[in-house]
Amino acid sequence: MNYCRIIRNDIRKSRLTTMITTLFVALAAMLVSLAVILALNLAGALDRLMVQAETPHFMQMHSGPLDAEPLNRFASHHEAVDRYQILEFLNIDNGEIELNGQSLISSTQDNGISTQSGTFDYLLDLDGAVITPAVGDIYVPVCYMQEAAMKTGDTVSICGIPFRAAGFLRDSQMNSMLSSSKRFLVSPQDFERLRDLGTMEHLIEFRLKDLSALDAFAADYMAAGLPSNGPAVTYPLFRMLGALSDGMMIAVILLLGFLTVMIAFLCIRFTLLAQLESDYRELGVMKAVGLRVSDIKKLYLAKYAAIAAAGCMAGIVLSFLLKSLLLQNIRLNMGTGGNGKAALFLAPAGVLIVFFAIMLYVNGVLRRLHKVSASEAMRLGTGPMASGGAGRMALSHSHFFNVSIFLGIRDVLLQKKLYGVNFTVLLFAAFLLVIPINLYTTMSSRGFVTYMGIGNCDLRIDLRQSVHLAEDAARIAREMEQDDSILRHTSLITKAFQVETPDGTVHNLLTELGDHRVFPVSYVKGQAPVSPDEIALSAMNAEELGRSPGDSLTLITGSGTQTMMVCGIYSDITNGGKTAKAAFPADSDDTVWAVIYAGLKDPSMLSQTVREYADTFPDTKVTDIRDYVAQTYGPTLNAIRMAAIAAAAVALALTGLITLLFVNMLTAKDRYSIAVMKASGFTAGDIRLQYISRFVLVSVCGVFAGILLANTVGGAFASLVLSGFGAPTFRFAVNPLLSCLLCPLLMIYTAVSASLAGTKGIKKITIAEYGKV
């Protein structure tokens, strides 16, 4: 049988339908291919960066005096240790750092300088080489290449001392803006010149012989009572922080791809069922002359194989054309990975899965050919499109609508299954449009700080570079007591305690002490600690320690052990998601850092208040809480914004194409009915209004159902994903103007425009065309 000729003839008869179906498949294939390409490149680039830099497996930050002898003994005697080193990191006040004359005083990062490591944890240039800076040169973190529009040869001033920006560095530890510190690299000679101009912090780093021994090693480190006045960070956390921003964009693209594949299936189902109905008489004839069902199925399978193959190939080509644009951020921050060649094979493999899934789906729909009766098909000539009864709706019931609008609504209700396909597609499209927008508006909203373990305040003051942190925090608090512009404030001191885990090991527990009722965070269960024997745990710590509200745990402090009752579990996606909050005094323990939060009586005075406190307390970091979130999650927000824009374009394109496809196929199927209506006195405008009213009704219902689903099920899905980062209470902060008004209007406008375009052909249908029928 000459399948090529049959397919060509069939495509000529339905060019628009074939083109739209192919576009759907191409879009789905492109998104799947892009997700595979981006995921492989991200994983490969991150792996290569961490291998080239020889990232520490365990790193303990320590502020204050350091006795290296106990560390040397521990490292030399512990069987898991391969290499060990102590690096100096000189914290510099942000106001003392200028990039091309632009001060970093408003930066939320803890910026400092360091020298190149001689053992591991190397700082690399943009070519992946280990940097050896010359005297007078400085290498700038790659994040400032974009933020401060820096270029090689520009001037960097540290405490009034000028340096030449010799290039930019990648830091496998601190590349991500989610990491609160950034390292500038200078020569050992320049480091000595600056040594007395900042506050020294030590990075105690270990490379292990076997990474699987990491948890046991961390427990041994804590049990040995070694320096731990600061957070401890492990290799998996470095990896997670490096991947998070671009990983979220890839996750959104993958979600778009999945939804688009589902929409492509629905589109194929509709077109295939419509074609089976129009071919009903021919199917009966073929069965009557003895053709087997398997032979008939091959005709349709061949056509849809050609459509799916063309769409999949177009999708692969488009994905490879777009990949460079989407890989820019990954290549800048991490370089190129070793998975580029793998992506050349695995991306088409992912698309091949889409192709076979489509063919299996088409084969499943074609099973209904077994139900076709040869005699009935030749007698009736047409097969019933899937329809559901809605009872009789007589024209006399039209009291509130124009006759054409009533007939349009009536047709939708009488053919629920047919229009249900269009409804479902629009529901998916609305879901696809709104989810990334809701995610972006939530992460950029004021209330998002409550998922960061921070209360919803206006002003944040960080103290991490002072010898007497607690005293300095108390001094600032007294100043705020006298400040009439401050409505309320609280001082929170973070100390590093130890806690016993269920398996008997000891872990470090960063605990924030103070009044947590002033600016409460988002609690999963329970409430903030009030009495000295209460403690609240972050969600990840609660899971790791196996504790719930009402349970007890033993806290090891400088003054001995304390039995604490867990009073609450809260969301925290900072510091690796592992923190705690308590309200007891602990003067005998070293302070890791101190933070002061304040709310203003007049929020419009925030910028002025930030400047005043920054001038009054120059050794602190004073930030608007909105700037804090924007700087911390800036790259993540940019990635999600790009994904949201792409999702909006895809959703609107899908809405227009599917509506155009449905209108085109229905008007082609209803040509005889349209001719009869024209003979009965209906004008072309009346008939067009019938079709437009059908799709307005379906689009309004589908779009708003999709938005409702996005705000409920979508929010639950986002919460499930973010619970892995420490925010199980995550809920969408929906912008009603954008998500519930502008997005629906855009989709409905697109659907109406497509239905207007699709019904133009009604004018060309003449009564004479069916005059002999």
Automatic annotation (TrEMBL):
Signal peptide (from-to): none
ABC3 transporter permease C-terminal domain segment(s): 255-366, 646-766
Residues that span the membrane, as ranges: 248-272, 301-322, 342-362, 418-440, 642-663, 695-722, 734-757
Main location: membrane
Topology class, membrane: Multi-pass membrane protein
Any single Gene Ontology cellular-component annotation: plasma membrane
Cell location: Cell membrane
UniProt keyword annotations, A-Z: Cell membrane, Lipoprotein, Membrane, Transmembrane, Transmembrane helix
Domain of life: Bacteria
Pfam families: FtsX
Listed PANTHER family: BLL1001 PROTEIN, MEMBRANE COMPONENT OF PREDICTED ABC SUPERFAMILY METABOLITE UPTAKE TRANSPORTER
Protein name listed in UniProt: ABC-type transport system, involved in lipoprotein release, permease component
Organism the protein comes from: Hungatella hathewayi
